[in-house]
Design a protein that fits this description.
Elements (H helix, E strand, L loop, with lengths): L8 H8 L5 E4 L8 H7 L8 E8 L4 E7 L6 H8 L4 E3 L2 H8 L17 E4 L8 E4 L5 E5 L1 H7 L2 E4 L4
Parallel strand pairs: 3-5, 5-8
Antiparallel strand pairs: 1-7, 2-3, 2-4, 6-7
């Protein structure tokens, strides 16, 4: 396990729970598209996930993790969350809500725990990768290990 310089909330949460993970970093000037991150790290984009934060018609917030090359199907997301409708939150609202910025949003270590849903394709992989809580860093771990620190449900979430 590679230890990062300056731990993020995600890393502190994993360490406190004694969850095994791999921490990977890469050079970049600002946020990259998820497919660019996968290419930089030599990973299959199907096993690299992006973290999306949404708000339901009820006003509740939800987190969805989907493969970086995929698009969130808002109707499927709403159905998974038991909402009539869901929309993406504005980028400017991400930091005050989660403590993370666009391009560095991790499902682990947010300011508050939100209901989380992971695309069912994650079950096809021994390990998945997602943001480590900062632009330029990624966490890789088994989906079952993610469930130790972030309770989630699997669902069909993509278009």
């Amino acid at each position: 396990m590679t230890k990062p310089d300056g731990k993020t909330n995600a890393i502190r949460t994993l360490d406190a729970a004694h969850v095994a993970y791999t921490f990977l970093t890469f050079e970049c000037d600002g946020a990259l598209a998820g497919t660019e991150v996968a290419a930089k790290l030599g990973q299959d984009p199907d096993c690299v996930f992006k973290t999306l934060v949404t708000q339901g018609k009820s006003g509740e917030f939800y987190v969805f993790m989907i493969p970086v090359a995929a698009e969130l199907d808002l109707k499927k997301a709403a159905a998974a969350a038991g909402e009539k409708a869901i929309h993406m939150i504005k980028s400017r609202d991400l930091l005050p809500l989660t403590g993370y910025i666009h391009g560095g949003c991790s499902p682990i270590g947010m300011k508050k725990r939100f209901p989380t849903f992971v695309d069912e394709t994650a079950q096809l992989f021994d390990r998945i990768m997602f943001s480590g809580g900062r632009i330029g860093c990624q966490i890789q771990l088994a989906p079952d290990d993610l469930a130790v620190v972030v309770p989630f449900s699997y669902a069909d979430l993509t278009v």
